[in-house]
Hints:
The chain is α+β, with helices and mostly antiparallel strands.
Amino acid sequence: MSTWAQFGLQESNSPVMEELVFLLDFVHMVLFFILVFVASIMVSMMVNKFVNKNLLEMQMIEAIWTVIPAVILVQVALPSLLLLYMLDEAADSALTIKTLGHQWYWSYEYTDFWSMKMNSNLEFDAYMVPTDSLESGMFRLLDVDNRTVIPMQTHIRFLVSSADVLHSWAMPSLGVKLDAVPGRLNQTKFIAQRPGLFFGQCSEICGANHSFMPIVMEVVNTSSFINWIISNQE
């Protein structure tokens, strides 16, 4: 979860998000050195009244300021491509959850579990808790009435779609942002590394109440997750 006056990304809770943070830090470092280098040259040329003519027009200089930027771009592109392949990695998942976007709430279906009282797969809707219904410890405009519970250190597959218009299921701490498109089933996979409460929001403008359909994910240990499943099946 983000904090007041935070500068940067949220604290990561998945291997993919950690790699995204590393890539961002690396790119910022490269940009900083480029900025300092270019600024120093500009300042030196403005201060110095005498400029060598070979510095303004020379084949060697032309080659240098063409090759060096190309090398820098390759160094940025390679980790970016590796990270893209990591995001699309296909691996066997231990748990599958289907998420459906609505105007304006999310519904979740645990396709691996059957609920006797529902006589169907375990499923529920998650609505934002109104401000006048908040209890102590709840977060305004972020908490929902039914939290999505997942086990930690488990490979999770999320299937995301929409029942009406375009939505986007986004969980910054996990490095996940997936479009919910009507008639299309998109998927993403991740591993939550530690327990806790994590927040996200719809990241696609979907109507008047777009900003009032938050996502709350509660990551627990395996035994707590099994107990939660059993309590919701009966």
